[in-house]
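step: validate -> pass
step: tokenize input -> pass
step: predict -> running
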Amino acid sequence: MATFTFEEQRVIIRFLHLRGMKPIETHQQLSETCNDGVMDVKNVHSWVRQFTEGRKSCENKPKEPPSRTSRSEDMVARGEQIVMEDRRLTVRQTATNAGISVGSVDTILHDDLKLRKVSARWVPRKLTDENKASRVAMCQAMLSRDKDMNSAFFSSIVTMDETWMPMFNPETKQQSAQWKHTNSPPPKKFRVTASAEKMMAGMFWDSEGVILTHCVPKGTTVTGKTYEDVLRTKFLPALREKWSKKAAAVLFHHDNAPPHRATRVHQFFEDNNFEVAPHAPYSPDLAPSDFWLFPTLKDTLRGRTFSSCSALATAILQWSQRTPKEAFAAAMQSWHQRCEKCVSLQGDYVEK
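step: predict -> pass
step: emit ->
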């Protein structure tokens, strides 16, 4: 017996069908005529039915490429519309709304639309157009002044701010990370909170280091009078002792807290030849104490418990002495860069 290909067998099936032979008889005839590889009865019935319905070709139909209806231009546009209407939807929710698979939606969002889901960042305040304009004007004024002073403006500023320092502040989860073997259990960390007892510290510093750390006595409220007293009796002598050249004409920066804007404080500045650098409202991202000094200091002291205000003050002093001068200078340079970025962002908050 000869060996026939499937296409040759179809020719035989069509010939026998045209002669009126039934499918089962056709299969028997094929089995007697062909060697191994004869078509089974089911396929014979299928081809007889197709020839009965009018098919004339015995060749296989070319396979059509798989449909990409899930990633068609219309579906990509539909996916973008769904996500833009509610940016918090999950991939699964988007797939349900679009009526396509999760995998297709994931590919559309990441590959076709180049989208990624990110968490919102906290900002101090919703800035108005007036706030943004004020921030841009301040940054432009400071950058212009820096250019006039051959890039020495920011490094010449003495800045200050106050902050609450808790007697105990727990470590962050990242700070408490530790190495472990693959087969050893993971370490456990019990949830703790910062202590209620705390101390307010005011820090005066510049590009070369901390000039004065003033720990506000317990029960004392920071007012224009107490702030002016600290400037007169503590800060000015400390500045004259450390940087006598700067004491002659101080370029000073602080935020817009009410005690800082008191009339007696402005009078003190005039009497001692202080030039106050501008600071826009609601702008901790443009205050070096807020974006560098205090976060760095507090991270260093996390996990330590202090029994008294004097112990905490000693730890702050030790930190200021151990921190290299280059770190303070880098913070002032970062201030310059943040001003540039604020201008480019048209007054919006500068991210980390």
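step: describe -> Residues 147 and 153 are 8 Å apart (CA to CA).
step: cleanup -> pass
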